Amino acid sequence: MSENSHTVKAVFTFKDNESKGKFIEFCNGDRGLSIARAWDGCESIECYEGLDNPLSVTIWQKWASKENQESYVKFRHDDGSFDFLGELIASPPEISGLRPVLFKTDEQQIEDVIRDMCNKDHRVGMKHTHDDCLFIRPTGNPLNMDGWDAMMTNENVRVDSNELVSINKLKVVGDMAYVCYTNHGKFNYMGTENDDIAVLTSVLERVDGRWVVVHGQRSSGRKPTEELPSFA
């Protein structure tokens, strides 16, 4: 659906079943919805009968643009259709414009997690980790989340910057996913300045509808002046 697309919901409540029947007959006739569906910019028009109120009919209209829909409405005013409709309904129709909700894909959600994992403030990333998550350091030594938090809040550690360079590979398989990414960090550890680029791999699991990191591993860093690792 394009950015300019326009969706409209119109709810009509009719005086009685006879009035509703006349409306349905009109919609199915030569001057009814066949004209609307052939109108420039009309993507779809669907009608639904209310379950709670059998005298109500809801019409969903999807148009390429608001201008297309307004052009059609003007035509219906001019041809007298709305005057006819006004004789059938019990009250003014409820008409509202709608905007589509664009839900992020699993891949996009995971990319957001990885960006937070590369935040200068380690607590931003920690909110995406599972309680049992283990992080394997370049030495091969594992670090749980309590250990990670203790290390990052140690007075001998100072993070100056931390940023995502690239996502090299991302794969989702059901409720599990893995992602390999490159990170550039500048930090001081035990009095030693570090400015290095590292490759990290994280395993994620979908838990209660959200992606969390359950395992991570970091490579040894290399200087920014060195050639970046290739994942082509």
From TrEMBL:
Annotated Pfam families: DUF3804
InterPro entries in UniProt: Dimeric_a/b-barrel (IPR011008), DUF3804 (IPR024525), NTF2-like_dom_sf (IPR032710)
Protein name, entry field: ABM domain-containing protein
Organism whose genome encodes this protein: viral metagenome
